[in-house]
Design a protein that fits this description.
Strand content: 15-25%
Number of strands: 10
Low-confidence stretches: 1-23
Order of helices and strands: HHEHEEHEHEHEEHEHEEHHHH
Radius of gyration: 20 Å
Oligomer: single chain
Mean pLDDT: 91
Length: about 350
């Protein structure tokens, strides 16, 4: 019960308390400042051959807060599923040597997912920043969420076949490090059930998925590529209910990636149309979940208004998309129609 009481208190933290919780993150994820880095690696091999089983060797260079330069050896491999197949530049996994990261900004880091631009166009660059912001919104709403760190990467092809490029990317907190923050373990399970999942956080994330206009997830169904559950990582201990933490938001209307499309099973024409997929059994939690979004409303708008790298068109589009969400939850009749009336 100690864990459950602690967990419930975390879910209900005020915005001020959430800011304090950031101190529980590893140093890399404590700051929201963009980190300039240089990745020197065999990019031609990574892009052309996309190795997912073998690593290639590279170097990762950045500056510490005191201005000193750090160069880390890093092993790199391609990863991902849809983006791996359709993007010009595949998502990457970085594998650092812990012996080298000691005493640096990357201390305690080992394997990290790197979310990169899909293709060399402004629209894809904006989509990447949009997905980064989706994670940041969830961080504002609940600390039980993956930390992210925005990078400005200079890509240097050690094979000399590609010109240097400078692009945005972001690192995703490793699930083992997230679990450690809240005394939980990442679970390798084949299936789950709504009854086995902590309901307060699950409902908050269901409302979050509605906020970003995402339908590409399931907290109970097995992923077509991996263990349970689809775009949710499951955490737990030996006694309490499971904790489901979402990730991967590129199919959402908030991100609005050029390739994003809803499944044919859903009654929506495009990802900019919201469809609530929360569970009816958790409807008694909806009011509290919506209140979290009301309490963090100003912080969410401020986040978007101040995000570097967004074009004026993207910023306006995001604000309009958020406006639409709040028009729904501000109106009890629309809440009844679009949330209670659409629960599963």
């Amino acid at each position: 019960m100690r864990f459950l009481v602690t967990f419930l208190s975390l879910v209900l933290l005020t915005s001020a308390a959430l800011a304090k919780e950031a101190g529980d993150h590893d140093p890399l994820f404590q700051s929201t400042e963009t980190l300039p880095v240089t990745l020197n690696a065999p990019l031609t091999t990574l892009v052309d051959e996309r190795p997912t089983e073998e690593y290639v060797a590279g170097q990762f260079e950045f500056s510490e807060p005191d201005g000193s330069t750090v160069v880390l050896d890093v092993k790199i491999q391609a990863r991902g599923h849809l983006r791996h197949e359709i993007c010009d530049f595949p998502p990457l996994r970085l594998n650092f040597k812990k012996s080298q990261t000691k005493g640096t900004l990357f201390k305690k880091q080992d394997k990290l997912k790197l979310v990169v631009h899909c293709s060399d166009s402004m629209r894809y660059e904006q989509a990447l920043l949009r997905e980064y912001l989706a994670y940041r919104v969830l961080n504002i709403v609940t600390p039980v969420s993956f930390g992210v760190r925005l990078l400005r990467i200079t890509y240097v092809d050690s094979e000399g076949q590609r010109d240097n490029q400078i692009r945005y990317a972001f690192l995703l907190e490793h699930k083992n490090r997230l679990g450690k923050r809240f005394d939980m373990k990442d679970l390798k399970i084949d299936e789950s059930s709504i009854e086995s999942i902590q309901p307060d956080l699950l409902n908050i994330t269901s409302v979050f998925q509605f906020f970003i206009g995402n339908t590409d997830f399931s907290p109970v169904a097995k992923s077509p590529y991996d263990e349970c559950c689809h775009n949710y990582d499951m955490f737990g201990n030996d006694t309490d209910l499971l904790v489901a933490v979402p990730y991967d938001f590129d199919q959402s209307g908030f991100v609005n990636a050029p390739y994003a499309a809803p499944s044919e099973q859903f009654p929506i024409r495009n990802v900019r149309q919201r469809l609530y997929r929360g569970r009816c059994v958790n409807n008694e939690r909806v009011e509290a979940s919506l209140q979290r979004f009301q309490d963090t409303r100003d912080s969410i708008y401020e986040l978007v208004s101040k995000q570097e790298g967004l074009t004026s068109t993207t910023r306006k589009s995001l604000i309009g998309f958020i406006d639409n969400f709040y028009k729904i939850i501000d109106d009890p009749r629309k809440v009844e129609r679009y949330i209670f009336g659409r629960c599963l």
